[in-house]
Amino acid sequence: MTSKTEGAWRVGVLFSESGTTHVTETEHLRGTELAIAEINAAGGIRGKPIEPVIHDPGARNDSYLKYARQLLAEDEVDVIFGCSMSASRKTVLPIVERYNGLLFYPSMYEGFEYCENLVYSGATVNQTCLPLADYLVNTHGGRISLVGSDYIFPRESNRIMRDLIEARGGEIVGEAYVPLGAGVEDLDPILRDILAQKPDAVFSTMIGTSAQAFYRLYDEAGIDRAAHPIASLTMAETEMAKIGRDRVEGHVLASTYFQTLETEVNRRFVAAFKARFGAEATTSIWSESAYLQVQLFARALDRLGVMDPRRLSQAPLGDEFEAPEGLVRVDPETRHLWLTPRIGVARADGLFDVVWEGNAPVRPDPYLATTRIEETALELWS
Description:
Rossmann fold; 15 strands; 41% helix; 7-stranded mixed beta sheet; 382 residues; alpha/beta
């Protein structure tokens, strides 16, 4: 069992610093660590520090399962900040439910899920895919290729994007998937198909090292990124730097956060992040969503004064505060966050110019129960 500090609020942290998604999950970990450090430096919660119990699952689902069980059953932890991919979340979920724990999950994802043992801090598809489909069709054209890693998030996101593009009079001209961790030999045939299809844009739900390799191949093929970009929900600032800033200018990201947001809260967040992790470090939706969910937990725990996962599961509902990305609010009905959708285009320095944003936080609709596929972002949020 991990050693225990008397009088501390112990929480589990389950993000991968190794494996195919280590870049983005390390960002989750950094955002979590920064938030905990800031809370502890300010006196903790009711005078007690947060003590993280950290495990590295190595982007392996069996390791997420093992460490989640260890945290809840052996390490005397009730609350976990963790998981990045939908596959890891779904692997951990039965264990969290069995031990009546509480998982804070920070990633944008495909939706169609509700659990009393989870707080979902990432964007839902109506906050990302819907404005992205509008932007691609209106700015670049309606002939879109879909590529993705072969698991639930890419397949479900691509299914929704197909419906959105076709509802706008566009056409999906190709769809292909590769295994997680796929290399150049798997990606070359997909790139050849894209060159033959000549789409107006590519919607990529590839994840991790495969996505990075695909972006490099796209650049080497000489495709005009300004005219025919890759659009994504995941390829944010830190991975852009990993790919090579000279290879990414013009690509598109649908996100609720960008480092370049000009708010006082974000300026403080970026400055603190760089002070802790180095001047060259970049914030991203991966670090920011992890950071804000720790703040959300701390606010709830401060109100309750007791680490009771059942009560903590309910305490954040309806809460709202200013995060680095702007005002966020926990929707009591869905357990997801009201967030402001944005579209960014990558610059030569690997950061993003925000070319479109909603004028207010948008209600999460993880089941697409109230959002009509044919509606546009302008109709919904004007």
